[in-house]
Each structure stands twice: as C-alpha cells, then as structure tokens.
Amino acid sequence: MDGSFLIGARAVTRDDTFRAIDPATNEALDPAFATSSLDDVAEACRLAADAFDTYRETDPETRAAFLEAIADEIEAVDGLIERAVRETGLPQGRITGERGRTTGQLRLFAKLLCQGRWAGVVIDTALPDRQPLPRADLRQRRIALGPVAVFGASNFPLAFSVAGGDTASALAAGCPVVVKGHPAHPGTSLLVGRAIQAAVRKCGLPEGVFSLVQGASNALGGALVADPHIKAVGFTGSRHGGLALVEIAQKRPEPIPVYAEMSSINPVLLFPHALAARAADLGKAYVGSLTMGAGQFCTNPGIVVALDGPDLDRFVDAAAEALGGAAPQVMLTGSIHANYDKGVTLLGGQSGVETIARGTEDSGVNRGRAALFGTTGAAFVANPALADEVFGAASIVIRCADKAEVARVLEGLEGQLTATLQLDDEDVEDARALLPILERKAGRILANGWPTGVEVSYAMVHGGPFPATSDSRTTSVGTAAIERFLRPVCYQDLPDALLPKAIQRANPLGLPRLIDGELE
Ligand SMILES: NC(=O)C1=CN([C@@H]2O[C@H](COP(=O)(O)OP(=O)(O)OC[C@H]3O[C@@H](n4cnc5c(N)ncnc54)[C@H](OP(=O)(O)O)[C@@H]3O)[C@@H](O)[C@H]2O)C=CC1
Ligand SMILES: O=C(O)CCC(=O)C(=O)O
After folding, report:
1. Which atom number of ligand 1 is nearest to the Cα of residue 225?
2. Ligand 2 centroid to residue 324 C-alpha, Å
3. Cross-referenced Pfam families, in alphabetical order (predicted)?
4. For the chain, which ranges sit under pLDDT 70?
5. Ligand 2 contact, 475 CB (< 6 A)
6. CA dihedral (151, 157, 163, 165) positive or negative
7. 300 CA: nearest ligand 2 atom
8. Are 121 and 257 found together in one domain?
9. Among 32, 188, 436, 439, which one has the highest count of C-beta atoms within 10 angstroms of its own C-beta?
C-alpha cells in the first residue's frame, strides 16, 4: 500500500502526511498517508460534476453491473480484513461479517436498480377533449441529485465507510461520490477506494464517478460540503460533527441536504409479564447487546425503562453479574476511548445515579470498561444530562414508579433510531398505549429482540427524528436509502424524441409505471 488518495483515475501523493494508529497498542502504522489539499478536494468535486450528466443517464443495468463489480473487487482485495482489524481494533469475525454486509448491500442495490420502482415513473396521459380545459401529457421520473459527499464512519470501516450504504445508494441513484475517509482507518479506506476505482475502469465509466480524499482535519470535510458541485451529503458520526456539516450546508449560497446519522440512546422497555417470566435471561441478553463491539454502535441499548419491583431487581442482578464479568475491549480510537471514559464519569457523577456494575479492570490501552447505571424515573425526567449518549458499552436502568412515569420518561426523550419492547401477550395492551409515543420518537420499533445489528433490506428504516438523524424522512440503511439522492422531474407535452428513455411511450427500459393512477 502506497499511502495515496484517489482523485478520479489517479492515485495522488503529497508531502503532508498522517498515519493510522493501531488502537490496541497506540503504535503508528505504516505507510504514511498523504493528506489531500483543499485544491484536491475541489478537483475531485469538479471531476464528479463533469461525470454527472453521463453517469446519471447510464441504464439501470449498467449501474447495477458497476455495483456488482465493486462488490467483486472488494471480495478480491488481499489483506483488507487484516488491515481493518489493525486500524480499528475490531475482531476479525466482526470485520469479515461486515465485509459480507457491505458487498451484500451493493448487490441489493444492483437488484433494486433492475426492478425499476426506484425510478418513480408516473404518467398522466393527455386529455385533449377534457372540459372546461384539456389536460397536458404529464410524465414524472426521478433523477439523481448530483455529486454526493460521503463521510466514512469510524465504527463501521466497511459497511458505513468508503463503499458503505451512503456510497452504494448514491451510486445506485446515479450520483458520483466523493468520499472523505475516516482518519482512523485510511488503509482500509484506500484498499476499498482502489476496488471502486478498478470497477469504474472495468465498467468504462467516467473517472469522476468516484474519488477518495483523506486527511485528519476538519477543514477538508468542511471544504467538501461547501463545494458548489456537491449537492447532498451522507454522514455517520458524532452529533457535534453532523451538526457542523449541517450548518456549513445551510450557509452555502445554495443550501443542500445533509443526511447525518448521529446520536441515539435506543430505549428498551421491559413490560411486566415479560419481566416476570424471564428477567434473568433478559438481563444477560441485554448485556450481550450492550457490550458487543465495545458498545460502539449507534443502535446500542443505552437506556432500559421498566416499572420498579422485584422482577426488575432480578433483571438488574443478572445484568450486573454478566456485565461484571465482561472483559474490557479495545475501542476504535484513543479519542473515542477518552470520550467514553469522560461520559461514564459524567453520568456516574450525576445526582440520583448509582453505579450498579463495571466490567473487569482495564488491561491495556484504549480498553473500554463496560458500565451499568441506575436511577429513578423522576430523576431521569428532571435531568436531561442523563439522556446524553455515551458512545460505548454504558447504559442506565430507569426504575419507574408507575405506568404514567414510564410514559413521561419516553415523552422526555429526544429522537431515536430504535425503540425495543420486551413483552409477552399479556403486555400487549400496555405496549399499545405507548406505541404512539414511540412512533413519534423512533425510526424502528422492535419486539423481543435487541436493537444492534441492522438488517439491510427493503423495509428497513435506520433513521429517526433529530438528533438520531438530521432528516427523519429517510433511512441510511436499506433500499429506501436511494430516495435521499433522487428528485422528481415532470415532463409536460415533450415529444417522445426528446423524452428520457425512462418515460418514453414504448417504455424501452421496461420500468414499472403508474399510468392515470393505475399500476401498469
Ligand atoms: N452515534 C453514532 O453512530 C456514532 C457516534 N460517534 C461519536 O463521535 C465521537 C467521535 O467519533 P468519530 O467517529 O471520529 O466522529 P466525528 O463525528 O468526530 O467524525 C466523523 C467524520 O466527520 C468529520 N468531521 C467531524 N466534525 C467535523 C467538522 N466540524 N467539520 C468537518 N468535518 C468534520 C471527521 O473528520 P476529521 O476527523 O478529519 O475532522 C470524520 O471524517 C465518538 O466518541 C462518539 O461519541 C462516532 C461514531 C458513530
Ligand atoms: O447496528 C447496526 O448494525 C448499525 C449501527 C450503526 O448504524 C452505527 O453504529 O453507526
């Protein structure tokens, strides 16, 4: 690996460099990676704009073949898993699974393109004899928004990074992509970036369809979002970072949408009958979800809400026992580990909060030690700081005096990616009463499972009201993610010769169409 970054078809090096750090040892890794300059960012965006009109009008099958080619190329990269493990401290099994999720996601978007519904073809045929006025021939389709900036996420070096969900959905929509790689895993980013570059070449697409800029400076990402050629942004990371990008995007002469997935504490509700039947099992399973991947999931179960009583005591005892035996795990970066420790100290020091259990003692650098806290519903409602996300394996159990207090706790929450119900049949009526609140708060409501581990599918919603995301109308996982990067255009009375193929009268692309309100 040569430490370059990728501008269109070129691999570029610069004198200004940075290195990945192995979080397990704090050792700086070879090679040194070139830091992209602001001119490099501008050049990547200009190439993307040059490629846009050609790329967006490629046939769906061409883009599908391109996504398939990216998946094939990623699978053929030597040393990808090892490099990602080294740069993130995540276990090999997890990274291998994540590669499968990444290539599966690309192939799912390829399939979606061939199915055609994404194009949103709607036709109102002309009614020349309509009284009192004739109706024109109206044809709607969706076109790509323009070049998209994607920010790689630290916690998913493959599935939410260079060829992750944002990139896959933008490329599927017909948008060229400029990725800002996460500075914690530049080697992983470059290997995946080269795989995309190879696929661009093999498929004969314009070079500006993909670029990867790298560096460890806010200025780079800021310049990317501010670049006039960029028309939308995909981001997964901190609330602070996401909001900074939203602000830059809003202050542009031409404001653009930012799809930022940020912070979520993912409430888990334990209903009385479920708790009575299986408190200890639930306690153990909760800790499994909480500590997976050192808790570095935005879907991590950060709060548990239940009625106080002996069944909740049994849940807490089982959770405390499981968590007390949990070994500390390497976190993604030194600063994420430091933020975690700070968050745990802040939460544990709040009035009315007790520390129920901690994982076993730290035994090396950047190891996150799991933490379980407890408080009352009244204390939680009175102090918004108790609902701040602590990114890592920390969670708080809220003991509520009655059902009304459960509802008050939920009403007080900010927007969430998920809400989880642990319930039995006898709990359904209690759950029904809370469903309207949960629907207002969360993007995904699940029963008798755990929120970590998002399925990549047609029905998935990985989104939610602020601050879970900056735009609750969409999802960043699943096929509906393509809609973030499309916009409708209506063509009125255009002759067939001038119409794009998607809405020509003979339907040469064979797309599904809604004609005069009826599915064809
Ligand atoms: N809820 C979630 O899913 C996640 C939450 N987090 C939270 O984020 C914290 C930091 O982790 P990290 O993953 O680095 O997330 P950040 O949000 O700090 O960074 C993510 C990306 O955004 C860029 N960025 C951040 N702020 C700005 C800015 N003001 N202007 C321009 N670009 C910016 C970063 O670039 P650069 O570093 O070059 O500035 C990086 O490429 C964690 O401790 C955790 O609290 C992290 C991951 C996921
Ligand atoms: O739980 C998952 O699979 C996805 C989590 C996620 O999107 C994130 O942590 O950023």
Report:
1. 31
2. 25
3. Aldedh
4. none
5. no
6. negative
7. 1
8. yes
9. 188
Assign residue 468 a region: left if phi > 0, alpha if psi is -120 to 50, beta otherwise?
Answer: alpha
Nearest-angstrom CA–CA distance, 74 and 61: 20
Predicted local confidence at residue 363, as pLDDT:
75
- The answer on 316 and 240 residing in a single domain is no
Least distant ligand from the CA of 239: 1
> Residue 425 is encoded by which pair of tokens?
């049949």
On whether both 102 and 242 belong to a single domain, the answer is: yes
Q: Is 312 in the pocket of ligand 1 (CB under 6 A)?
A: no
Q: How many domains does the chain have?
A: 2
CB of 238 closer than 6 A to ligand 1? yes
CA distance between the termini of the chain: 52
Domain holding 118, by residue range, is 5-18+34-262+471-486
How far CA 520 is from CA of 80, 112, 123, 140, in Å, comes to: 46, 18, 10, 15
Options 43, 45, 68, 298, the catalytic residue: 298
Q: Is 243 exposed, middle or buried (0-12, 13-18, 19+ CB in 10 A)?
A: middle
93-138 pLDDT per residue, tens: 999 999 999 999 999 999 999 999 999 999 999 999 999 999 999 9
162 and 294 together in one domain: no
Active site residue 261: yes
- The answer to whether 476 touches 166, Cβ cutoff 8 Å, is yes
**Whether 39 and 188 share a structural domain:** yes
Residue 206 lies in a domain: yes
Residue 114 is among the residues annotated as catalytic for this protein: no
Going from the Cα of 158 to the center of ligand 1, the distance in angstroms, rounded, reads 16
Distance 477 CA to ligand 2 centre (A): 9
As a whole number, the mean pLDDT across the chain is 98
350, part of any domain: yes
> Quick one: 276 and 325 in the same domain?
yes
| Binding site membership of 299 for ligand 2 (Cβ less than 6 Å) | yes
Predicted local confidence at residue 361, as pLDDT: 87
Q: Which of 261, 389, 405, 414 is catalytic?
A: 261
Residues 239-284 have pLDDT tens digits of 999 999 999 999 999 999 999 999 999 999 999 999 999 999 999 9
